[in-house]
Design a protein that fits this description.
Length: 336
């Protein structure tokens, strides 16, 4: 278990002036919320801060960034910012390849690199790591940093961003790592101005017609394997085209195979132009990240992912399901 150390980072955030913040490809509310919360604190304390990502911000999360701080990385316009930064903070990922088009410039920069994250097995690329693989979210880690920096009174915009980060990465506070401390943090963020009803509605109750239809098509194809302990769903490129949706619209769809009675592991296969994205979920003591590693991925014990390129969906799906049956049955045998 990795626990965070703030000692080397807090003085740097207070003392230095030129910051760049970034997060992983296809950012979620945890990565984006952390960027926005940290950027708002830095800007309010007179720092120069630029926030940029490889991917555009999904429309559903843009309400978190009313000051429009987040930019989509363009090497010609933004490369000098990375080169001139004193600190580059990478949040919600600890592998530089997940920065995609930004990877080379981030790694090459002479800036001090700070990695703030809650995932397992970090790459050795940063100067300072604030890691807690037992945290519910990167938002929970950053909350503790900002409390140390700012005291208990967080501005409403920061509270909103952190609440969204924690809420989404805990599955609306229902995942196994949620504990009393998580709820105390959430309560404090509400006291600071986060509106839980509005945040939930903005993220989960603004679906397009196309996304609803995509969910219906996906659920129509839901199947089980391994005697009902593995459930899986598939989204093809044809389904995306037919419903006018994209990869962002599949966010949180892994919830549905996990809802089947008796299922211990759920898998979502998403066909991409260059291969297949695989999202793994599990319950209890089934370390699904170990299965993801077999396909070049990783993640948390109960939530992980992988991308397989250059191979067709039917071939990848058959191989993954065969491995999943063997893997999950093996884990359950160890339990019994």
């Amino acid at each position: 278990m990795v626990k965070p150390s703030y000692d080397g980072v807090i003085p740097l955030l207070r003392r230095l002036s030129k910051f760049v913040l970034t997060t992983h490809v296809n950012p979620d509310a945890d990565g984006l919320g952390c960027e926005i919360a940290l950027a708002e604190w830095l800007a309010s304390n007179g720092k120069q801060v630029a926030v940029m990502n490889h991917s555009e911000t999904p429309e559903v999360f843009r309400f978190l960034d009313p000051n429009k701080r987040i930019q989509t990385f363009d090497p010609a316009r933004h490369g000098h910012l990375l080169a001139e930064a004193e600190i580059i903070a990478i949040v919600d990922t600890n592998h530089p390849e997940r920065l995609r088009s930004m990877q080379h410039d981030v790694v090459a920069s002479r800036a001090i690199k700070i990695c703030i994250d809650h995932h397992l097995e970090p790459s050795a690329f940063a100067d300072h790591y604030v890691l807690d693989d037992d945290a519910t979210s990167t938002g929970e880690i950053l909350y503790k940093i900002l409390i140390e920096l700012n005291g208990a009174a967080l501005p409403p915009l920061i509270a909103q961003a952190l609440y969204a980060a924690i809420m989404t990465d805990t599955g609306s506070f229902r995942y196994p790592r949620v504990d009393p401390d998580t709820h105390r943090i959430a309560a404090h963020l509400i006291e600071c101005g986060a509106d839980p009803v509005s945040i939930y509605s903005q993220i989960y109750e603004r679906w397009s017609n196309g996304r609803i239809h995509l969910l219906g098509e996906m659920l129509a194809g839901l199947s089980t394997a391994a005697g009902g302990i593995v459930a899986h769903v598939t989204i093809t490129r044809d389904m995306l085209a037919r419903t006018g949706t994209n990869e962002d619209d599949t966010d949180n769809f892994t919830t549905y195979p996990m809802s089947v009675n008796g299922v211990r592991a759920g898998i979502l296969f998403l066909e991409l132009s260059d291969g297949v994205k695989i999202s793994f979920r599990s319950k209890g003591d089934v370390p699904i990240n170990e299965l993801a590693k077999q396909f070049g991925g990783n993640g948390h014990k109960n939530a992980a992912g992988a991308r397989v390129t250059g191979r067709p969906l039917p071939e990848v799906r058959a191989e993954v399901l065969a491995a999943a049956e063997q893997f999950v049955n093996g884990r359950l045998e160890q339990e019994s």
